[in-house]
Amino acid sequence: MLNPKRIKKDFPIFDKHPELVYLDSSATSLKPRPVIEKLLEYYTDYTANIHRGIYKNAEKSTQEYEDTRKVVAKFINAKRPEEIIFTRGTTEGINLAASTIGLDSIQKGDEVVVSRMEHHSNFVPWQQLAFQAGADFKVIELNESYELRVMSYESEKLIINLGGVVTKRTKILALTMVSNTLGTINPLKEIIAQAKKINPAIITVVDAAQAVPHMKVDVQDLGCDFLAFSGHKMLGPTGIGVLCGKYELLNKMSPYQYGGDMIRQVKIEETTFNDLPHKFEAGTPHIAGVIALKESIKYLEKIGFKNIREHEKNLTMYLAKALSYEFPNLIKCYGPRQIGHMGGIVSFTLKNLHPHDIAQILDEDNIAVRAGHHCTMPLHDFLGVPATTRASFYIYNDEDDVDKLIAGLKKTVKILK
Ligand SMILES: Cc1ncc(COP(=O)(O)O)c(C=O)c1O
């Protein structure tokens, strides 16, 4: 069992702001002491660039950096550490894939498929790629349970039907594992398997920004070609992320950026490129960020993803029930009904109250929630509202936080009505 009160003690922000009710971990998570200390350790003990110097500190920083690559590979069960490319975050990972393998493989008449629930980071790069190449940009719609329309259940058995959506002409299928607005968990293993049956050459890209921090993700089990996530949503530093790609694909892809460290030899006549993963890591990376990411993984694994998932399920259910009990005629929640299909995210509207007003009044009581379109404008078109209020949970939240949110919402309704 996970103990949020104990866990809170590891997060120095609560020493400074003991009253903080932080319900915005989908935007970014708070940082525990081991992660902050690791950042400090690099800057105070062995600052040096990596893969260059042969003095002690340069060797130490290179070793810490490359150790992290191994830790990340093991964490998501990549076949080999060379499949792990450090990026600035999910956005850069997806843009890397779109502007290398995407650009190289898409031609006029091909199809690029995403879903309506994608974050703009996994929507716009593919949309723009399709537009540039003259390819068809197709969007998987949602059903009334806020799940992908290509899935249904027959007596609990999951049925996937990609017929018509994914075809032999589909070159890219890019989907989120967990929606950052609805909390919907998509059955990507089954979807990817079916897509590969329809077109074995399809390239599948998984946006795992809201999945990797909250549940065990295994890239080999998923069967995807690429998977991207961000460090800052999983207790790690901002400005660091991972793109995991299949070795054979990464190996034949053109570089994303040019510069130091990604080359083997540069001559006036020609340049040859470095081996994986360095081919995709041009310039000096966020060394401290990478090194500290290792600590966030250690911290999460110590708690255990079974515990994390269970904890978030309980809080999600507790909040969903409280909202419908306290605001029966006002509340509308946007997300799946079955708890097994929901991540730790609840987005809602309260009749005639603007989400920004709600968030502002909650902030007076130090309750941090997100209000807006959460970088999912096509999804909000489907929801029929320009904005929602979103509460998202992580390991440091507990039922007291939910009770405070409910009390804050009651106060908000009184003020605004
Ligand atoms: C599902 C999803 N994808 C992509 C992103 C983009 O992540 P980043 O801003 O860290 O690149 C986010 C961030 O909120 C997200 O929730």
Automatic annotation (TrEMBL):
PROSITE patterns: AA_TRANSFER_CLASS_5 (PS00595). Pfam families: Aminotran_5. The keyword Magnesium does not apply. Coiled coil: none annotated. One of its GO terms (biological process) is cysteine metabolic process. It is an enzyme of class 2 (transferase). One of its GO terms (molecular function) is pyridoxal phosphate binding. InterPro entries: Aminotrans_V_dom, Aminotrans_V_PyrdxlP_BS, Cys_dSase_SufS, PyrdxlP-dep_Trfase, PyrdxlP-dep_Trfase_major, PyrdxlP-dep_Trfase_small. It catalyses: (sulfur carrier)-H + L-cysteine = (sulfur carrier)-SH + L-alanine. Its EC number is 2.8.1.7. The keyword Repeat does not apply. Residues 21-405 form the Aminotransferase class V domain. Keywords: Pyridoxal phosphate, Transferase. Belongs to the class-V pyridoxal-phosphate-dependent aminotransferase family. Csd subfamily. Catalyzes the removal of elemental sulfur and selenium atoms from L-cysteine, L-cystine, L-selenocysteine, and L-selenocystine to produce L-alanine. This is Cysteine desulfurase. It comes from Candidatus Roizmanbacteria bacterium RIFCSPLOWO2_01_FULL_38_12.
